[in-house]
TrEMBL record:
InterPro entries named among the record's database cross-references: Glyco_trans_1 (IPR001296), Glyco_trans_4-like_N (IPR028098), Glycosyltransferase_grp1 (IPR050194)
UniProt keyword Transferase, yes or no: yes
Residues annotated as domain Glycosyl transferase family: 226-379
Keyword tags: Transferase
Limits of the Glycosyltransferase subfamily 4-like N-terminal domain: 14-133
Organism: Devosia limi DSM 17137
Pfam families registered for this protein in UniProt: Glyco_transf_4 (PF13439), Glycos_transf_1 (PF00534)
Keyword set includes Electron transport: no
Name of this protein: Glycosyltransferase
GO molecular function: glycosyltransferase activity
Top-level taxonomic group: Bacteria
PANTHER family: SULFOQUINOVOSYL TRANSFERASE SQD2 (PTHR45947), TRANSFERASE (PTHR45947:SF13)
Signal peptide: none
Length: 411
């Protein structure tokens, strides 16, 4: 097949870019012809099958510049025309879209519609139903925009607590709804059942085709160890929705068991101050770590903690932990419970209950055999489900269903 893949970034900035790149790698290795479309600066090591488009600097610049670029962020007619040209030249059998909002904009879906090709969309956040992507703001889960009541995004200042940004995101949601951009998609893929269920709640009168497409991740290539050292580990961004403050609160009640925190972010000063105020000598901030340095610490941890407050769809950190046979203590949010399976590959706690988190930490801190049993189960589960062969089977099935849905709509 000739497959056109589109994502707003090619440069690695997070798990979404890993998903995009790895999907293309697996497809190309299986013999498919692939072309990636993204935005960003050109580089000498740019893959030959990557076409980079230019996008304004939506993060920086002046307030006036952002206001001028706002219409393009919502619906970029120029990108639609560029994508039409790419489709005409490449002649794909389908378009596989990932995160395209703002930098590419959903206008590219109309280019695919004009060319009469199937569109499959992989959604890793909640932008299709929630103006701020997260279903979470100001410390709480939020479904206020259900029923196309997007004005609540502006009322709640849910986008970075910024009135102007929240208003712009409200306008974006209404415009996309009126234009019906998500109706251009023939088949959706989600990494978790949770995302499919919540999408159904927001779209009760809008039937949609979907299938599960787990993260592309070569678990078996990661060598695990059966021993461990007595510490728990958090690694990831230090932002409010990740719930690291709950972990620090719990650390005061775990009999001095060491907790290592890897990562950086805007919450770091507050979290360090919180640990200092409580006199927690067992909490250590290690800063950001990558590659072999991260894996060396992760592979020896007794367990990994994922204390998210927001409904994370499918955290890559759990993939990384499971591949190294580390059990996960995770919050009952989003797709986390599906992965952890309470008591099998780790333990689940209510995120607003640091006492419950502390109890789980004490349990695995003192019962090394239980931690090892869960870690082995996590590795077996990960190796069986997260490999190139399983991913190729699932993505091929998604494409088949998308093509069938496209054919059915033509009738």
């Amino acid at each position: 097949m000739r497959i056109l893949l589109a994502h707003k970034f090619h440069e690695l900035t997070g798990g979404a870019e890993v998903f995009f790149r790895e999907t293309e790698r697996v497809l190309r290795a299986a013999g498919h012809d692939t072309l990636m479309v993204a935005t960003g600066a050109d580089a000498v090591d740019r893959p030959h099958n990557l076409q980079l488009l230019q996008a304004p600097d939506y993060e920086g610049g002046t307030l006036l510049g952002k206001a001028i670029n706002l219409p393009r962020a919502i619906y970029d007619g120029g990108k639609r025309r560029q994508m039409a040209g790419i489709i005409a030249e490449f002649q794909p059998d389908l378009l596989h879209a990932f995160a395209i909002n703002v930098h590419l904009s959903p206008s590219i879906l109309d280019a695919a519609h004009d060319a009469d090709i199937p569109v499959i969309a992989t959604l890793n956040d909640y932008k299709h139903i929630c103006p701020n992507y997260k279903l979470f703001h100001h410390g709480r889960i939020c479904y206020d925009c259900k029923g196309q009541r997007f004005f609540n995004a502006a009322r709640n200042r849910c986008c970075k607590d910024n009135a102007a940004l929240s208003l712009a995101s409200t306008a974006e949601a209404y415009i996309h709804d009126v234009l019906g951009v998500y109706r251009r998609i023939h088949h959706f893929t989600f990494s978790s059942d949770f995302m499919a269920e919540v999408t159904t709640q927001f779209w009760p009168d809008r039937p949609f085709s979907w299938s599960k497409l787990r993260n592309p991740f070569a678990s078996a290539t990661h060598q695990s160890r059966t021993d461990d050292e007595p510490y728990g580990l958090y690694f990831g961004r230090l932002v409010a929705e990740k719930g690291v403050d709950r972990l620090i609160e719990a650390a005061a009640d775990i009999n001095g068991f060491p907790i290592k925190i890897i990562g950086s972010g805007p919450e770091q000063p507050r979290l360090e101050a919180l640990a200092a105020r409580q006199g927690l000598s067992n909490v250590e901030f290690l800063g950001p770590k990558w590659g072999a340095a991260l894996e060396a610490i992760l592979s020896r941890a007794r367990f990994v903690v994922v204390p998210s407050l927001w409904p994370e769809n499918f955290p890559y950190v759990i993939n990384q932990a499971f591949a190294l046979a580390r059990p996960v203590i995770g919050s009952r949010r989003g797709g986390i419970p599906e992965l952890v399976a309470d008591g099998e590959r780790g333990l689940i706690f209510e995120p607003d209950d640091p006492g419950a988190l502390a109890a789980h930490i004490r349990h695995l801190a003192t019962d090394q055999a239980a931690a090892r049993r869960m870690g082995i189960a996590a590795k077996l589960y990960s190796d069986a489900l997260f490999n190139d062969g399983a991913f190729l089977t699932d993505v091929t099935e998604a494409y088949r269903r998308g093509i069938d849905a496209h054919r059915h709509r033509r009738r």
